[in-house]
TrEMBL record:
The active site is at C152. It holds the Pfam family DNA_methylase. Its EC number is 2.1.1.37. It is an enzyme of class 2 (transferase). This is Cytosine-specific methyltransferase. GO terms for molecular function: DNA (cytosine-5-)-methyltransferase activity; DNA binding. The keyword Transferase applies. InterPro entries: C5-Methyltransferase, C5_DNA_meth_AS, C5_MeTfrase, C5_meth_CS, DNA-bd_dom_put_sf, MerR-type_HTH_dom, SAM-dependent_MTases_sf.
Length: 419
């Protein structure tokens, strides 16, 4: 049943080609360019497209100029409480707070990320340390939603179906254990798109079966594109929503917005921010890399370099084929930024500033992730970049927060009606 629901989220390559009236060759090129990315279907491992991605592209072709009437905003009818696990520097937590949810506790291992949380929200209850050392029984039936971006690890399978105890030793186990202890109406896991195909889809299926065992039905998994949620960045997050089995209320993902924001919206005064990005420290490229990137125009990448420099810069990758459109990339003002990584000068994932040959500064990074300008980050420059690069974009989290509030309003209304 769950498997079918998940399966229905995909289209095969030939279905997609037919729908969009394009050849499979064009689709392959689009895949390389990142315009429409195929993924591995978790069970069969076939290359497929997410139905929602194809539908969005379809709407673009038809040039459906739908006025931006979409709003996911909804006011909470009660004070809803969140327990946020693997909280990092608070991307998800700040977004939830902006939506109107209240963080009652946040767990995080990294001391710099904890310092960031405390610096900005001295009243937040930050539980610093390894999640394994905490038990959450004191929050039993006191919290409305448990959230967490657990790092993804493979399971070792003893039997056919993964149970909670078989998952022991992984961080997903800790997430599921917390959910079991707290018993909230809804829980939300977030992860990278790669979880879909991790260990041939077995990791995700294992997570779904663990949640099933502890009493939660999993809503068909979706990968949300941040660009559809007021984030000027092509980042994607996989969302895993569990609904407690005694609750028969549908959960709906936040509706995607039509308007897509770009780098200029992130760094200049406009609809997203009412002033230009504040100045701050930032990393630098080594001289040799800077000399190469000086030759790349805005929106260009390694293919825009003279052929001898391409070969030298790319090394063995030059001969490996594939688009590698993220290498030696200079972002343009009129496009969303490519996904930010945890380290801005990292090899093979350069995202150079449009006008200057340098990585984005810390405050520019924070804006591309839609953090407010007054959200400060603790630790060294490298620690700050890491925290920002790890975060769920705040605006995406806010929209997700509205979808949780919508669900909880409905849940409590139904409960009140019955009583
Ligand atoms: C992807 S990040 C989460 C980002 C966060 N959701 C945000 O939006 O900013 C995962 C976090 O899990 C934390 N983590 C890893 N292992 C942990 C453990 N054993 N206990 C608690 N936190 C852990 C990492 O330090 C990291 O900050």
């Amino acid at each position: 049943m769950l498997y079918n629901l998940v399966m229905n989220e995909y289209l095969t390559i030939s279905e997609t080609a037919k729908l969009l009236k394009k050849s499979t060759k064009t689709l392959r090129r689009w895949d390389e360019e990142g315009k429409l990315t195929a993924i591995r279907e978790p069970i069969s491992n076939y290359r497929v497209y997410l139905k929602s991605d194809v539908e969005n592209l379809f709407a673009e072709f038809l040039q459906i100029d739908v006025p931006e009437t979409i709003s996911n905003f909804v006011k909470p009818n009660h004070e809803y409480k969140v327990l946020e696990l693997f909280a990092g520097a608070g991307g998800l937590a700040v977004g939830m707070e902006k939506a109107g949810l209240k963080c009652v506790a946040l767990n995080e291992l990294d001391k710099f990320a904890c310092a960031t949380l405390r610096k900005n929200r001295p009243h937040w209850n930050v539980l610093e340390g390894d999640i394994k050392k905490f038990n959450f029984n004191e929050y039993a039936n006191q919290v409305d939603v448990v959230t967490g971006g657990f790092p993804c690890q493979a399971f070792s399978y003893a039997g056919k179906r993964l149970g909670l105890e078989d998952a022991r030793g992984t961080l997903f186990y800790e997430f599921a254990r917390a959910v079991k202890e707290v018993n909230p109406p809804i829980c939300i896991g977030e992860n990278v798109r790669g979880l879909l195909s991790h260990d041939g889809g077995k990791t995700l299926q294992g997570m779904i079966s663990v949640l099933d065992e502890i009493g939660y039905n999993v809503v068909p998994v979706q990968v949300l594109k941040a660009i559809h949620y007021k984030v000027p960045q092509k980042r994607e997050r996989l969302i895993l929503v569990g609904i407690r089995k005694d609750i028969d209320i549908p959960y709906e993902y936040p509706k995607p917005h039509h308007k897509i924001f770009n780098l200029s919206d992130a760094l200049k005064k406009g609809e997203l921010y009412d002033c230009k990005v504040p100045q701050s420290g930032g990393a630098k490229y080594p001289e040799t890399k800077k000399a190469v990137l000086d030759l790349v125009p805005p929106k260009g990448y390694w293919r825009d370099l003279p052929i001898d420099i391409q070969k030298e810069f790319m090394g063995a990758s030059f001969y490996l084929g594939g688009g590698k459109t993220g290498m030696a990339r200079r972002i343009g003002w009129d496009e969303p930024c490519l996904t930010l990584t945890c380290s801005p000068a990292q090899k093979q994932t350069e995202r150079c500033h449009p006008d200057e040959t340098r990585p984005f500064t810390v405050r520019e990074y924070a804006r591309i992730q839609t953090f407010p300008d007054d959200w400060e980050f603790a630790g060294s420059l490298a620690q700050q970049y890491k925290q920002i690069g790890n975060a769920v974009p705040v605006n995406l989290a806010k929209e997700l927060g509205y979808s949780i509030i919508q669900f909880l309003n409905h849940y409590y209304k139904t409960k009140e009606d019955v009583n």
